[in-house]
Specification:
With 266 residues, the chain is an alpha/beta fold. The protein is built from ten helices and eight strands. The structure holds NADP nicotinamide-adenine-dinucleotide phosphate.
């Protein structure tokens, strides 16, 4: 199942990654988010192999890098992810970033994802860092019901309402990446105040706010106590007033903006 809280794995590699995934699985995480670009699929695969969980018990998302969007390269990339993760299939494969060169038609990439799905290499596919124009183009080609999620940066300081609203209209799940603004939520006085009220910390409040907005959140952490706080955020209930207060923190403060990014909507 595409659980609303998943484990982010960007920037964590090697033994540390294997250890973090094992700790997360012990806590109860059943959704892991990785990417070929994170160079940690093998480390995650080790933890999965060591766990007693069957492959249908842990949801795995990986992403195809933008240099591999051509039909054959995409299928090879997915096969390589499966091998490294020691799995027969991925639950979800995402186009990590749209093709910045414009050389590979989006339709070709989507057809390759459809093919991967038909062949049983992936159960679902989706996109990441897609703006409204690209999402419309993708939905027009494969049908909006084929696109499980659009994963993009979302936290209290960047709420990305234009693209989020289109996802809602299309019935496409929003996955919020960097839900803690890389830890910056810890310094926000309002989040601290609400956290005090719930006897938790601002990271948990940011996650609870996303979940209550029906977003999927994939926070990362290298510390067991943080992994637990983040996982337990799903049991918090913020009042309508607290939700509204956090809604008002939007500052359009984008953290991830590489030179190959598409033209953002907000
Ligand atoms: N699709 C894309 O292009 C894309 C881009 C970026 C990220 N992502 C995905 O989104 C995931 C999350 O983003 P991210 O890892 O960059 O940033 P993040 O989850 O927003 O923040 C991680 C930072 O927050 C700290 N933290 C975590 N839990 C905490 C807690 N309970 N209390 C205090 N501090 C806490 C961590 O430090 P400690 O380790 O000390 O806990 C770490 O420094 C990534 O791992 C990746 O899977 C996707």
């Amino acid at each position: 199942m595409f659980e609303p809280i998943g484990l982010g794995t960007f920037r964590i590699q090697g033994k540390k990654m294997t250890e973090v995934v094992s700790q997360a699985l012990d806590i109860g995480y059943r959704h892991i988010d990785t990417a070929t670009m994170y160079r940690n699929e093998k480390d995650i695969g080790k933890a999965l192999a060591q766990s007693r969980l069957r492959q249908d018990q842990v949801w795995l998302t990986s992403k195809v890098w933008h240099t591999d969007l051509e039909h054959k390269k995409l299928l090879d990339s997915i096969k390589s992810s499966c091998e490294k993760l020691q799995r027969d299939y991925l639950d979800l494969s995402l186009i990590h970033w749209p093709d910045p060169t414009g050389d590979i038609p989006l339709e070709e990439t989507l057809d390759a994802l459809m093919k991967a799905k038909q062949e049983g290499l992936i159960k679902n596919f989706g996109v990441s860092n897609f703006n409204r124009a690209l999402l419309k183009q993708a939905a027009k080609h494969v049908g909006r019901e084929q696109i499980l999620t659009n994963q993009f940066e979302m936290h209290p300081f960047l709420q990305n309402r234009a693209i989020a609203n289109l996802c809602d209209e299309y019935g496409i799940r929003v996955t919020a990446y960097m839900p803690l603004a890389e830890g910056k939520v810890m310094e926000e006085p309002l989040l601290q105040e609400i956290a005090d009220d719930h006897a938790t910390n601002p990271a948990a409040i940011a996650i609870a706010w996303l979940l209550q907005h029906k977003r999927t959140a994939i926070p990362s952490s290298t510390k067991p106590e943080h992994l637990r706080t983040n996982f337990d955020a799903q049991h918090l209930h913020l009042s309508p007033q607290q939700m509204h207060q956090i809604d008002s923190l939007d500052r359009h403060q984008r953290i991830v903006d590489p030179d190959f990014a598409p033209q953002w909507d907000d």
